[in-house]
Amino acid sequence: MNWTGLAYAMGVGGTGGGGQGGGFAALVPLLLMFAIFYFLLIRPQQKKQKKHREVLAALKRGDMVVTVGGLHGKITGLTEKVVTLEIAEKVRVKVGRGYIAGTASQEPEPSKK
Predict the structure, then answer these.
(1) What count of other Cβ atoms lies within 10 Å of the Cβ of residue 93?
(2) Of 95, 57, 58, 54, which is closest to residue 76 (Cα–Cα)?
(3) Strand pairing partners for 82?
């Protein structure tokens, strides 16, 4: 078999306008991938963060909360950045507001597998 002839036959034709495919057509797959990542990863994370910010803004004295570390306690004091929790009788700990996972009365969301 003549491999050289086959290689020339598979090459780009000498004349014709169909050889160059670029520009916007090359961006379409990238834009499609970005859209998929946005709707599957970025958007749900933004919704979750917004809900968490709303929960933190609505905290008040007397609420039962759970920290990220798993401590359950009742809020006895609040400042802009620090929450004081009573985790047992006469045992109080100070926790950063951002480390509050949510209120203890919230039902845990079912894990998606």
Answers:
(1) 13
(2) 95
(3) 96
pLDDT: which is higher, 111 or 24: 24
Tokens of 24: 């916007």
Give the tokens for residue 105.
């009365």
State the CB neighbour count (10 A cutoff) for residue 75: 19
Q: What is the CATH class of 60-105? A: mainly beta
The conformation of residue 42, written as its DSSP 8-state character, comes to I
Cα–Cα distance measured from residue 30 to residue 65, given in angstroms and rounded to the nearest whole number: 43
pTM score over 0.70: no
Amino acid (one-letter) located at 92: R
- Residue 66 parent element (H or E): strand 64-67
pLDDT at 4: 74
> Sign (positive/negative) of CA torsion 89, 74, 77, 71?
positive
